[in-house]
Amino acid sequence: AQSVTQLGSHVSVSEGALVLLRCNYSSSVPPYLFWYVQYPNQGLQLLLKYTSAATLVKGINGFEAEFKKSETSFHLTKPSAHMSDAAEYFCAVQSGGSYIPTFGRGTSLIVHP
Amino acid sequence: NAGVMQNPRHLVRRRGQEARLRCSPMKGHSHVYWYRQLPEEGLKFMVYLQKENIIDESGMPKERFSAEFPKEGPSILRIQQVVRGDSAAYFCASSPADRGNHEQYFGPGTRLTVT
User: Which pLDDT value is given to residue B101?
Assistant: First the structure.
């Protein structure tokens, strides 16, 4: 069984501040982990993915995430928020051998000028 | 290289009518997935198809919903006798057959409104 918990349905930061979006997962086997971003009225776009290579994964738009097995976490960070980062962010887990990812409920990132 | 295409982008149906949602996967992709998204919720898996085969429909409601991915043409998600609770955004995703990391590419979605 696999599941994802995203802590905080809304995160608000000032432009230029650190972005931290939290994701904890549960998986019975080593997982694949993903972060997607969704802009209003659009589909999901892959930001980055962990597939058992390096534990620190760099993605697009300056985002990165670190896989911590001991904490079963895959938190998403960005050193300096930009107004254009305002969107909905989804964490997803997919157990090896499964074709079906499980998505978290999403975190809405709000960026203040 | 066109991405995943979905049409229509917006669909309005009265209760009791049928809704047909279409999805054309990325070129070279033979796996299609349908998801439903309700307001302030994540994506819920509905069905996974390959050409002419339903692989996993564990997320599909037992009645009124069906999906197909014919040998030629787009994948179709069909909802018969729609009810207000069917109002949601429906997303299609595709993936290539030989990718070990199962990355999915999403379309822009169809927003269904049942009046």
Answer: 59
